[in-house]
Amino acid sequence: MTSVSFITGFPGFIATRLLKKIARFHPFARFELLVHPSQLSRAKQELDRLVADGASPRERYRLIQGDITAKGLGLGSDDLTRLRRDVTHVFHLAALYDLAVPQDIAYRVNVIGTDHVNDFVRSLTHLQRYTYFSTAYVSGDRTGRIYESELDCGQSFKNHYEATKFAAEVNVQALREDVPLTIIRPGIVMGDSRTGETAKFDGPYFIMRFLDRLRALPVPYVGAGAAHINLVPVDYIIDATAHLAFAQEALDRVYHLTNPNPCSARETYEMICTALLGKKPTWTLPSSLIEASLSLSPLRRFVRVEKETIAYFSHLADYDASGAQQDLLAAGIHCPSLREFLQPAVDYYIAHRTDPDKLIPVR
């Protein structure tokens, strides 16, 4: 039977790169791409680029207008009938990945949207694998060693993003007895390890935006910075997912796609400062003071940093990735160290830091 993959989240950065990778690994596969109506024009452009890059012919790909927040994914009966008959693999990537997202919006997209995808998955006749993109940070405020086998440990959450991704994964894991499932939990995703390319400057890029504002001043450290910051390049996430989604050993497994050797927040901050500004920080601001200051929206907008980012500088959690490392080793897939991919990330930021499409507005 021909492999038919149904992918949500296209034309998002990770979904687009994953599609390209799978298309090359599986040259006879076909793809059904669920696209929100607001993204249809961009999706057509991305698909044209992908086909021109060699993932052709165009007939392998179908764009379907839909909405994960609507019942039946907002699809018509003809589309649903065809998909239920043909789809063999589902990749659910569509979500809101914003640490400052309001609760109601996060819940509607991340939880209700995932529930609708789950309902769709249960209706498929020939499903071979459902690959769901969660996040390592479903661990919330837990500290210490976090294992891939763990989920609900009574934790609280630092923001609505974490809380809703946790609730969504709980509902996905409830399918494990009935659905062939693989759950992917990435760390904090940065740009490509070789080119630095990324879709937007959020997450660790807020540090670069902050340092840009202070480049003429003596630069401070942010708190003690003892916590590990788990940064991974997007190409590692893509390579690992494209392998695990079709690997028999990954069936009914949960994987931390995290960096097995993360740097501390202080080391990470110092490395970014050196690569971006050519100098090291010389004094320290308490993280509590910075977090309190960022409660003031004018200051947030000036330094271009969301206050939710600061909590990760002091969050003492480490993500065990033993299962992922074991199952990816045979495929020759490994996560590079931050020192290997930080300079390309900084160089890409420098080249594109005025691009309005990449600058996430700070509210």
How would you describe this structure to a colleague?
- This protein has two domains: 4-189 and 231-257, NAD(P)-binding Rossmann-like Domain (Rossmann fold, 3-Layer(aba) Sandwich), CATH 3.40.50.720; 191-230 and 262-316 and 337-352, no CATH class.
- It is built from twelve helices and 15 strands.
- The protein has helices spanning 13-25, 40-52, 77-86, 103-122, 160-173, 205-213, 234-244, 265-277, 287-293, 297-303, 322-329, 338-352; strands at residues 4-8, 30-35, 61-65, 89-92, 129-133, 144-146, 181-186, 188-190, 220-222, 228-229, 231-233, 253-257, 263-264, 283-285, 317-319.
- Helix 1 packs across helix 7 (234-244), helix 4 packs parallel to helix 5 and helix 6 (205-213) crosses helix 8 (265-277).
- The N and C termini lie far apart (49 Å).
- This is SDR family oxidoreductase.
- Residues 7-240 form the Thioester reductase (TE) domain.
What's the gist of this structure?
The protein has 363 residues and is α/β, with parallel strands linked by helices.
Name the descriptors.
363 residues; alpha/beta; Rossmann fold; 2 domains; two-stranded parallel ribbon; 12 helices
**Count of β-strands:** 15
The low-confidence runs, each spanning 5 or more residues with pLDDT under 50, are: none
Q: Structural class of the helices, strands and pairings? A: alpha/beta
Q: What is the approximate shape? A: globular
Q: In angstroms, what is the radius of gyration?
A: 20 Å
Q: Under CATH, the topology of the largest domain is which?
A: Rossmann fold
* Count of spatially separate domains: 2
What is the CATH C-level name of the largest domain? Alpha Beta
**CATH homologous superfamily designation of the largest domain:** NAD(P)-binding Rossmann-like Domain
Adjacency order of strands in the biggest sheet: 3-2-1-4-5-7-12
**Assembly level:** single chain
Total count of helical runs of at least 4 residues:
12
Note the run of SSEs as H and E. EHEHEHEHEEHEEHEEEHEEHEHHEHH
Beta-strand percent range: 15-25%
CATH architecture of the largest domain: 3-Layer(aba) Sandwich
Largest sheet: 7 strands, parallel
Percent helix: 25-40%
* Average pLDDT reading: 94
Distance between the termini: 49 Å
Protein name: SDR family oxidoreductase
Pfam families: NAD_binding_4
Domain Thioester reductase (TE): 7-240
